[in-house]
Amino acid sequence: MRCFFLLFLFVFVTENVDAQIYEIGIFAGGSNFIGDIGATDYIAPNQLALGVLAKWNRSPRHSFRASVIFSDLEGIDAKSDDPRRLERGYEFNTDILEISLGMEFTFIEFDLHTIGSKGTPYLYSGMTLTHHDNYYYLSNGERVSENTSSWAFGIPMVLGYKTNISNQMILAAEVGARYTFSDELDGSMPDSEDREALSFGNTNNNDWYMFTGITLTYTFGRRPCYCNF
Questions:
Q1: Taking phi first (over 0 means left), then psi (-120 to 50 degrees means alpha), and beta for anything else, what does residue 187 get?
Q2: Can you tell me the distance from the alpha carbon of 133 to that of 145, in angstroms, rounded to the nearest whole number?
Q3: Which overall architecture, per CATH, does domain 27-220 show?
Q4: Where are the domains of the chain?
Q5: What one-character-per-residue DSSP string does 161-220 give?
Q6: What is the mean pLDDT of residues 128-140?
Q7: Residue 140: which residues within 8 A CB-CB, separation 6 or more?
Q8: What was the pLDDT predicted at 6?
Q9: Cβ of 187: how many Cβ atoms within 10 Å?
Q10: How confident is the model at residue 20 (pLDDT cuts 50, 70, 90)?
């Protein structure tokens, strides 16, 4: 999957470099989980998150954006403020791979071909696919792998601020929540229907996780004509 994405990005940029303006870069920051295990603080990064992203700026106000981010998700009941979770004492740590596609909207026009420094808040949303391993918990709190993995669909909701730090480099800081259509990321709901009796927590609420960090992108491509958008 990683090789396919890099190949797609290379072909896409190579064939369209003269048509519009593009950005490629990196994401670095942290992640935290919000679900049935661990603390429920919304912005409390506790694991490293790293990734790559690409943008196609279709106008000074909106861009198509794609990203791939790798991270761990961690939940520790001992760090929760909930007395029931403190008494239960569960914990987990799992690797995730997130692929995201969507659109970024700026609050102020962000024309990279105008002279001088510029900055603007922005919003990003679209869809995510998050790959994770499946496991469940025995009644004594032991975590057991199901030896399977799943893809969870989700919706990213990101708020950030970006500014140009040179003619071709853009620095941004952002906080993004991911609402997933799954309750399996922390093992509170086993993937196998045969183990449904081992589910725990609030089975009516799906899992969330957060990414908090910075992006640094490099821009290239000739001056675009935005008049058609």
A1: left
A2: 8
A3: Beta Barrel (2.40)
A4: 27-220
A5: EEEESSSSEEEEEEEEEEEES-S-TTSSS-SSGGGGGG--S-TTS--EEEEEEEEEEEEE
A6: 94
A7: none
A8: 45
A9: 29
A10: low
